[in-house]
Amino acid sequence: MDDRFAAGQRVTVLLPPKADFGKDETFRILESVLDRLGCGGCYSGFDIRFRHEVSFLYDTQSKDLVSNQQQL
Amino acid sequence: MGGLPALGVGLTYWPRLGPFVEAYPESVDLLEFQPETVWLPPRAAGQACTYDASALDAVAALPHPKIAHGVGFPVGGARRPDPAHVPPLRAVVDRIGAPWVSEHLAVNTAGGPEGEYCTAFLLPPAQTPEAAVTAGRHAREVADALGRPFAVEPGVSYLRPRPGEMADGEYVATVLAESGCGLLLDLHNVWTNARNGRQPVDEFLAQVPLDRVWEVHVAGGSEYEGYWLDAHSDVVPDPVMALAREVMPDLPNVGALIFELLPMFYDGVGPDRLRAQLDALRGVWALRPPSCPALPARPVVTGSAVASTAWDDAIGGLAVGRDVPGDLAASLAGDPGVRVFAMLLGELRGSMVARALKLTTRLLLLHLGEAGLRDLLAKYWATEYPRLFAVREAEGFAAFVRAHGPRLPHLDDVMTFELALLNVVIDDAGATIVFGAEPNEVLGALAAGRLPESPAAGSYPVVVAPG
């Protein structure tokens, strides 16, 4: 999303240097701290963000999630 | 009071919709902003909420007129809304220059054996004369404290109509008479209630004073086990559009027509359908009466009745999954609509944890599976009441996991890291978290949706700092 619309107080994360790590992935999920903090919106329906996390892991074809699911 | 400005057709504003608003300026006349979405929780008990000034500045800088729609301090309960919320609300409203403010005619505070708690989810109010008078008084108090025109929005109830209760429209009309406030008429709410077996739309509209309607909401929803949910998840259903066209000519004081869409559903709707939706609503807006006359002076009825908290405590306790004693709770528990509220509240609480502790949630999902994590969440919900702010819900869950959860590799480091990430914004102070394994590997793997694979053990400081 365009940074102009993701405004909010910035947070800096300093990680130990590691040359082969793809930092983009980490910083992408850290970019909207404000969205993690506050109240949700006005509605009387499903908040699907938990389900989104489940779907995300299925979409990445995580064998861990699938195998654990099958054991339960 | 003079007439309110006729602002036109708008959207509930979310940063996710910012690019759309900028790309299609002709589609959006105004924005409705929900102040609590930029609020930060109190730093300590007894303190007021603050807000993220930079996020608020970004909203204020948008060129559109803006109105404010509160989501955290409804006025429909027996308990007075916490007056500590007024200063930060007023600050936000002043900053965006909202000509009027609205809140929900709902309940989100209840009492239990351990005292009062927030339900986090908007629940239906008691529909008795005493409750209506009390809600009207609370609405009037908030309006006076804000110093702005104030409107109330009747919500969605998945409960069956109860014997002896006021009809939905009668209840709303009484609140308006008691408060002198305006009406935010959410047509999707009215249609949803009727579709789920409550008062027919025509009866509701015949009972409420349409000249008090300052604002109209429309939205889309979804089906769930025979119920239509007010999910704000799609474009407006055809019957609701037809209803809007029918009602709009009868609203002489309407100032805005707002389409509500949650950002998590924007990708499913997409910009083309959203533009088409707003264009269609522009056609509805054109049907309003040609002039916007001054609001008629309305005497405020000042009843002295005081509502009992019994309803709020019963519906609240049942929604949060507690055993609630008494005949009222037993009667309510037989209504399948209570289970709908409980299910929706559970999804909200799980989602608060998932958005506040994203990597922690992934780590738990990868180890426990969805069913295992849901079981852990249910155990947490059985011991802790909901919190209004996601960060506080996350803190509660993290404490529960540390005390009662499984011992999993990297779990404590990742939870501590994510909590520090949140609290640095609230406290404006940094923190150093010492990971017991190479943090790039741990965080990177979870960000990519997989478990870390043998990260090197050691002592690795990670600094989280403001700015």
Structural key phrases:
heterodimer, A: 72 residues, mainly alpha, 4 helices, 46% helix, disordered C terminus, B: 467 residues, alpha/beta, 8-stranded parallel beta barrel, two-stranded antiparallel sheet
Describe this structure in words.
The complex is a heterodimer of chains A (72) and B (467). By secondary structure, chain A is mainly α. Helix content of chain A is 46%, strand content 6%. Chain B has 467 residues and is α/β, with parallel strands linked by helices. Chain B has helices at 18-23, 53-60, 86-96, 129-146, 168-179, 187-195, 201-207, 238-247, 266-285, 310-319, 327-333, 336-356, 358-383, 390-404, 411-427, 439-447; strands at residues 8-12, 30-33, 39-40, 50-51, 66-69, 101-105, 107-112, 115-123, 150-154, 182-186, 213-219, 222-224, 227-229, 256-260, 431-437, 457-466. In chain B, the strands form 5 sheets. Chain B has an 8-stranded parallel β-barrel, surrounded by 4 helices. Chain B has a two-stranded antiparallel sheet with strand order 3-4. A two-stranded antiparallel sheet of chain B has the order 7-8. In chain B, β5 (66-69), α3 and β6 (101-105) form a beta-alpha-beta unit. Chain B starts with 7 loop residues before the first strand and ends with a strand.
Brief characterization of the structure:
Chain A has helices at 23-30, 33-37, 49-59, 63-71; one strand at 11-14. By secondary structure, chain A is mostly helical.
Structural class of chain A: mainly alpha
Overall geometric form of chain A: flat
Uncertain stretches of 5 or more adjacent residues of chain B: none
Number of strands of chain B: 16
Taking Cα atoms only, what radius of gyration of chain B do you get, to the nearest Å?
A: 23 Å
Termini separation of chain A comes to: 37 Å
Q: State the assembly state of the protein chains.
A: heterodimer
Distance between the termini of chain B: 45 Å
Q: What is the C-alpha radius of gyration of chain A, as a whole number of Å?
A: 16 Å
Largest interchain contact: A-B, 58 and 93 residues
> What percentage of residues of chain A falls in helices of 4 or more residues?
40-55%
Number of strands of chain A: 1
